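Follow-up to my post from last week.
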Amino acid sequence: GILCSDFPEQLIAVRKDAPLLIGYGADGNYIASDVTALLAHTRTVTYMEDDEVAVVTADHVQILGRDGCFLEKEKHQIQWDVSAAEKGGYAHFMLKEIHEQPDALKNTILPRLSKGQPDLADDGIPDSILKDCRRIHVIACGTAMHAGMVARALIEPGIRIPVTVSIASEFRYETPLIDEKTLVIVISQSGETIDTLAAMRLAQSYYAPVLAIVNVKGSTIARESNYVLYTHAGPEIAVASTKAYSVQLAALYLIYCRMALVRGVYSPVQAENFMKELLDAIPAMETMISRKDEVKNIVNHIISKSDAFFIGRGLDYAFSLEGALKLKEISYIHAEAYAAGELKHGTIALISEQVPVIAIATQEHIFAKTISNVREVKARGAFVILLVKESAVIEDDIADVQIRIPDIADSFTVFPIAAILQLIAYYA
Ligand code: BG6
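User reply:
Got it. Predicted complex:
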C-alpha cells in the first residue's frame, strides 16, 4: 500500500506474490492481506492478482492491469460473520478454535454425504482423478503437512498406491518425479502460503492434476489449483492451527473413502461404515475437549522441563509429529517426535529422570510394540503420559499418567488424540 502526501485522499495498492484484497465498506474502502482483517468492516471483497494495481479512495476503487488498462473485477461476498473472528468469551482464539472443532468437522463432512457415502461431485471433483492416478503426492507446510502424514498412513495401505508427503519449501526447489498420473494434493488453511503455492505451480508444470484442500475461499491456491475441496472451518485466527488440522483430516478421509469406493476397494456398504466411523470420532473428540481440566492438571510436569518427547508408531507417529509442533510453537518448550522404535538408535540417551514423554498407543496391531518402548523410557526415569483407548489393557504403573480416549476404530483416533495434544500445548 502506498500513500503520497500530495494525494492524501488516495491509496495505491499493488499485489506481488503476497495476498491482497480490496474491501468495499459503507464507510470507506479497505486493503488487507487476509479476509479476517476486514470482517468487522465489510464482507464484500475483490481478490487481486499479481501485478494488478488498485487506486482506492473512500468512495471509489479502480483496478488496473499491468498494462495500465482498467479491469472489471468480480466482487465476492464472504459468508463468515464477524462473531467468527471474535473470541466469544474464550481466553484466547486457540482455545475457542479447539472447541469449534466438532462443529467444523460436521460442516466439512455432512454436506458431502449422499446415502451415507462420500460424494465429491458438488465440489466439482471428478471420480476419474481418484480412479486413474497411479500415485499420490501430498504437499504442504507445518500442521497441514502433518495432516498429509496421517493421510499417507491411511491411503497407502488402504488403496495400495504409493503416497509421498513433501514439505512444500523443499519440494519447490526439487526436480520431482511426478507426471499427469500423479494426483497432487496440496493442503493449506490460508491458501496463501507462498512455499505451498510455489510447489503447486511446479507440480502443475509437470502436468500433474492438483486437488487443493483449502479453508479460505477465493485464496490464491484455491483459484489456481485444478480442483478444490473446501474445509468449512470458518476463520482460523490463532497462528497455531487446530481446527484447520481436523478439517483437513476430514477432507483427506473423504477423499480416501471416495477413492476406495470408485476403485472398488470398498463396497458401498463398506464406504458407509467408514463414514459412520468417521462421524463417531466427532463425539469422541468432543469428550476429550470437555475433559480439558484433566489435561490442564498434567502440564505442570511439562512446563518445568526444557524438553519433551512424543512417541508413537504408524498413525500414532503421525499424530506425535503434530503434538510436538504444537507444543514447540505455543510454549517454546523444545519438543521432538520420534517413531517409538527409532528411539533406541541414539536418542534414548536423552531420556533421563523426569523428562516428559508423551506416548501415543492407539493402534492395535502395534500396541504391544509401543508399550515396550514405553517400558524402555520408563526404565530410564522418564515421566510418561500415555494416551490409550479406554479398553486398553495395561498395568497401572506402566506410565505416570494415563489419558484414555473413547473406544473408536483405530483409523479415527487422531481426532480425540489431536484434542489432547492441542490442549497440552495450549495449557503449557
Ligand atoms: C505456519 C503455521 O506458519 O503455517 C502453521 O504456524 C500452519 O500452523 C502453516 O500449519 C501452514 O499454513 P497454511 O495456511 O498453508 O495451512
